[in-house]
Amino acid sequence: MMAGEKSVKSGGTDCEPRSVLCLDIGSGTQDVLLHLPGEQPENCPKFVLPSPARMVSRRLAALTEARRAVWLYGDNMGGGFYRDVKRHLEQGLPLAAHPEAAMSLGDNPERVRALGVTLTTQCPAGFTPLHVCDFDPGFWRTFLAAAGLDYPDLILAAAQDHGYHPDSSNRIGRFRLWRDFLLQARGRPEALVFAEPPEELTRLRTLKSRIGSGLVADTGAAAVLGALHESEVRERNSREGICVVNVGNSHVLGFLLFQDQVLGVYEQHSNRSREDVLSDLDLFRRGELTHEQVMDEYGHGCLTLDLPPAAGNFTSTYVLGPRRALLQNIGATFLAPGGDMMLAGCFGLLQGWRFAAGRT
Fold first, then answer.
1. What domains are defined for the chain?
2. At what angle do helices 52-65 and 82-90 cross, to 10 degrees?
3. What's the pLDDT tens digit per position in 152-166?
4. Each residue's pLDDT tens digit, 180-230
C-alpha cells in the first residue's frame, strides 16, 4: 500500500497487513523486500541473498566431495542444482529423491529415473538427507528475527516456472499460458499474479501452498509489473502505448501496454544477438511480429491483440533485468523500481497485489 492510502476495514478490524514480505526467487539470487505500509520504499528493509537453489547446490557439492550417498526430500523447487546432481551421479555416487522433491529435476518421473535417481518416499539406509524447497518458513523466522524484524502478515513470491506440459514441449506450453492471459484474461495486469496458479505451473502451485494466503507470479511477469510500480510509467501508459522489456538471464520478455492493459507479449531466449532482438522488438511494436517467426528462431512466441490507433506506435521503451545492457543506447529508459533495479520483481509483486485488490 502506498502512503496515504486507506486501509480496508471489515467488521471493525483493520485488514491491511502490517508488513508484506516480497520474494523474487531467481537462479542465482533471492531478492527480498519487506514492505512496511506507510514507509517510503527507501526505508523498507531490503536484502539480496543466495537463491534457495544455489544453497542446495553448495550443500550437494560438499556431500559429493565427501563421497556421501544423498536423499533429496522436501518440495518441488527450482532446479538450479541439476548440474550438481549430474556431477554426483557421474562420480558413481548414489542419489535418491522423494517423488515431490524429484519434480525439481523434471516433472516426468520416468525421465528423472533415467538420470539414475532412485525415487523413494523413505531415506535409504546410509544416505544423507538433503532438504530442498523454495520457501522455508523456519529460515525466514530466524533470518528476520536476527535482523530485529517481525514475521510478515502477508507473503508474495515469484519464481520462474516453465510448467509441466506432457502433450507438448515446455516452449510451446509456456507460451500457451501467455496466450490465455491475452485472450481470456484480456491482458489485465492483475491476471499476472495468482491466488491459485494453473495446474501446469507445478512449481508455483507448491510455492503458493507454502506461503499461505499470498499471491505468486512468474519472475518475468513480476519484473514487468515492477515497471508499472513507477509513476512515470503509469502516467505515460495512460496516454500512449509503451513497450516494457525485461532482459533476464534466460529470457527476453516484452509487453506492449496501453492504459494498464497488456496488448502484446513477446518471449525469446536471452542468448539471441542484440541485432536480432532489436529487429524483433521493432516488428513487435508495430504488431507485425508473428508467433511463427519467433518459434522458428527457437523462442517461445509472440502474440498481439488489435492495437488501438490511440496507443500510437509504442516507441517509449522501458528496460529492466540483469542483462539489460543488451538494449543499451537505443533511447530506452532503464528502470529501477523503488530506487533499486535488483528489486524490480519485488515491487512488481507489490504492484500486482495492489491491482488484484483494486488498490491501483
1. 16-45+154-357 (3.30.420.40), 52-132 (3.40.50)
2. 10
3. 999 999 999 988 888
4. 999 999 999 999 999 999 999 999 999 999 999 999 999 989 998 999 999
Q: What is the pLDDT of residue 309?
A: 97
Q: What CA–CA distance (Å, rounded) separates 343 from 326?
A: 19
- Amino acid 360: pLDDT: 63
How many alpha carbons lie under 13 Å from residue 190 in its C-beta half-sphere? Answer: 9
Q: What share of the chain is helix, strand, coil (3-state, %, to 5)?
A: 40, 20, 40
The span from the CA of 252 to the CA of 277, in Å, is 8
DSSP string over 136-197: -HHHHHHHHHHTT-PPPSEEEEEE------TTS-HHHHHHHHHHHHHHTSTT-GGGGSBSS-
The residue written with cell numbers 500457451 in the block is: 176
Q: Kindly report the CA angle at 50 between 49 and 56, in degrees rounded to 5?
A: 145
pLDDT tens per residue across span 246-297: 998 888 999 999 999 999 999 999 899 999 999 999 999 999 999 999 999 9
Query: C-alpha distances in angstroms, 235 versus 52, 91, 239?
Result: 36, 57, 7
All three cell numbers of 235: 502516467
Measured CA angle at 223 (ends 222, 227), to 5 deg: 110
